[in-house]
Amino acid sequence: FGKHNDSFKKEFLETHNQYRKQHQAPELRYSDELCSAAQKWADHLLSIRSLAHSDTENGENVFYSSSSVKKTPKGHFTQVVWKSSTELGVGLATDGNTVFVVGQYKPSGNITNAGYYEKNVLPKI
C-alpha cells in the first residue's frame, strides 16, 4: 500500500485535528508505537474478516467496509475529539475488496467517570 498509505495517514491525522479544533481540543501527533499496534490489529481483522476491538489499554476506533457487504461504519466520535488524548496511530489493511481501519489513541478517552466527559468533549465552536 506504500505511498498511498502515507497519504492516507496524513489525511487521517489532518481530519482528526480539524474535528478536534472545532471542539477546542489540541492537535494529536502521530505515535510510531500506536501506528504499529493499530496496523497489527488491522492486519489481524482482515485475516479473520471480522470487526472487533483489541485488548489494548489505548482508546480505539475500528472501521470496516467491503464491496460486497454494506455495513454502517462503526466508531466513537467522542474519542476523536477527547481533549486529553495526545497521540494517534492508524493501521489500514485491505485485500482490494475489504478494508479495515484501526485508530488508536493515547491516553484513552471515553472515560465515563463523573466529570471526565464534560472536561474532555467540549462544545463545537
Automatic annotation (TrEMBL):
Entry-linked SMART domains: SCP
InterPro entries associated with the record: Allrgn_V5/Tpx1_CS, CAP_dom, CAP_sf, CRISP-related, SCP_GAPR1-like
Domain SCP: 7-113
The organism's place on the tree of life at top rank: Eukaryota
UniProt GO cellular component terms: extracellular region
Protein name: Im:7150988
